[in-house]
Write a structure and sequence with these properties.
With about 475 residues, this protein is an alpha/beta fold. Helix content is about 25%, strand content about 25%. Helix 4 packs across helix 5 and helix 5 crosses helix 12. Bound molecules: 2-acetamido-2-deoxy-beta-D-glucopyranose (3 copies). One 2-acetamido-2-deoxy-beta-D-glucopyranose binds next to loops. It comes from Pyrocoelia pectoralis.
């Protein structure tokens, strides 16, 4: 037995405040030495009556170990009610970082005397439990507790063959078998369409760069539908969508995970950007339901029918006909693409299943409109924590009470607004990039504790290439000590 040497590093904050602060600052981006993310972020809440993007000035600056200037890209988002989000992306290692916040006449500075690494540095330093603590991940999410409840002890030596045999039917499945061993990621995929493995690969590699993961073995379903229909099988399989009549273990969708990893990168729509681009006060939003989407579910056609009957309550159109091409005449014409941010010019957003749960739901919650959600057996990793009539309005699966609920919202504007705000607050507390990293780490950690077989890399598995940079993290940490 050897215990890994934990290189703990002591952050030194010098916080200087001049004048009286009429604001509060908090968030993971103020702990950049411990919380490494693609885009670090923190919040500023001002207590002034009215606010403006111009009121806030932030500088994030520092020097690299070679005494060069740090390369940093920063971006300030004004959300609503005087709440700002500041995010910044680091492109090289910094030996110190100074975050200066100037709001009105008041200036506040954070000096972090530590090495601070960009996300692509391969610097796992701490074991999972310490990492979860450093990141202030809180307690194990309810959904993980529930999903793992039936798995007291998992022995893949007895399961592996059975799972592969059951699901590796020609053409039917996209399944990958992963092993994480000594913080390296290995996998073997089964099925014809396994391109989506890239999403699982990227989150695993990203975690392996930050944390000493436990050795663990698991299967990931890359398809839309959950797989484990038979309780007797008791197969532990990770999926992006769960359902009331299956037993898959859910994890954040590839979409939400990708937007976490590509924050300030490739994606435009993520849980932070959506808040900075929908600064429409509730009172100015149009009191109608807005909806756009493709025809991946019969009920979506039904929504169009309702909207044609009640044009004063809806602005709803299909954007694409694929599943019901022959009905385009009745349910068309199809609409031009509308920027997702524009959805929130309207007060009410309706969420109707596509093939499974509609993966846009996190963004709908974050946009500050009232979410009206169709009853569904499908769910993402956080749905079971949402409370109907508190965070959103639930409607019948066949939409038969949709009109009634929209009329209720129009007549009870204060209650509708309160619910919309509660939905947004839920998204802020549970679905931001930090939460998504925490969820994956919790899941791997809890899952690994239940595995009883010896974790080994199997012959046919391939190493998932590590594209990260070395960044001298061991060396720099040692220097620091
Ligand atoms: C916020 O309010 C305080 C106190 O009224 C004032 O001193 C400060 O200038 C205001 N800040 C901004 C940015 O308006
Ligand atoms: C519905 O929304 C689209 C996209 O924002 C807009 O161009 C159109 O004018 C709206 N239709 C009505 C009837 O308001
Ligand atoms: C991953 O990258 C690090 C840093 O460049 C390197 O030390 C390590 O050997 C790599 N691991 C694999 C499996 O390639």
């Amino acid at each position: 037995m050897h215990t890994p040497v934990i290189l703990s590093f002591i952050p030194i904050f010098i916080i200087s405040v001049c004048g009286e602060a009429s604001f509060r600052v908090w968030g993971p981006g103020l702990k950049p030495q411990a919380i490494v993310m693609p885009a670090r972020y923190f919040f500023l809440q001002s207590y002034n009556e009215s606010c403006n993007l111009k009121d806030l000035e932030v500088e994030v600056d520092g020097t690299s170990p070679e005494n060069q200037r740090c390369r940093i890209w920063k971006n300030i988002l004004y959300t609503h009610n005087c709440l700002y989000i500041v995010r910044y992306k680091l492109y090289n290692t910094c030996a110190n970082l100074k975050i200066s916040i100037k709001y009105g006449e008041v200036e506040q500075t954070y000096d972090i005397k530590s090495y601070i690494y960009p996300e692509d540095c391969n610097c796992p330093r701490v074991p999972t439990d310490k990492w979860l603590n450093d990141w202030e991940c809180g307690s194990i999410p309810n959904q993980i507790v529930k999903d793992l409840d039936t798995f007291k002890a998992i022995n893949f030596d007895n399961l592996r063959e059975k799972i592969i045999e059951k699901f590796n039917q020609p053409g039917s499945i996209s399944l990958c078998h992963y092993v994480v061993k000594n913080n390296e990621v290995y996998r073997q995929c089964y099925g014809k369409y396994v391109g989506f493995k890239m999403f699982m690969d990227s989150i695993l590699l990203s975690l392996a760069r930050k944390v000493l993961l436990p050795d663990v073995e698991f299967f990931v379903n890359l398809g839309d539908w959950p797989l484990v229909k038979d309780a007797k099988d008791n197969f532990p399989i990770f999926s992006w969508s769960g359902s009331a009549d299956t037993f898959d273990i859910v994890m954040p969708t590839y979409d939400l995970t990708e937007s976490t990893l590509e924050n300030m990168g490739r994606v435009m729509l993520d849980m932070l950007s959506v808040q900075g681009n929908v600064d429409y006060p509730w009172e100015e939003r149009i009191p109608k339901v807005f909806w756009r989407g493709r025809d991946s579910n019969r009920q979506r056609l039904h929504l169009i029918e309702l909207s044609k009957k009640h044009p004063h309550l809806f602005n709803a159109s299909l954007t694409n006909f694929f599943f019901f091409r022959d009905e385009e005449e009745k349910y068309g014409p199809k609409a031009e693409h509308v920027s997702f941010f524009k959805f929130f010019e309207y007060k009410y957003q309706v969420c109707i299943d596509g093939t499974v749960a509609a993966y846009r739901l996190p963004y709908l919650l974050a946009g500050g409109s009232l979410l009206i959600k169709q009853e569904s057996k499908y769910y993402e990793h956080f749905y079971n924590d949402l409370i109907p009539d508190t965070h959103f309005i639930v409607i019948k699966r066949d939409l038969s009470n949709l009109i009634e609920k929209v009329n209720w919202a129009i007549e009870n504007d204060d209650k509708a607004k309160k619910m919309a705000n509660a939905g947004r607050a839920f998204a802020m507390e549970n679905l931001l990039p930090k939460n998504i990293f925490c969820y994956h780490t919790f899941l791997l950690n809890e899952f690994s504790k239940r595995i009883t077989n010896k974790i080994k890399v199997l012959n046919d598995m391939e190493l998932v290439e590590n594209t990260s940079k070395d960044c001298n993290c061991d060396k720099t940490n040692r220097d620091e000590l």
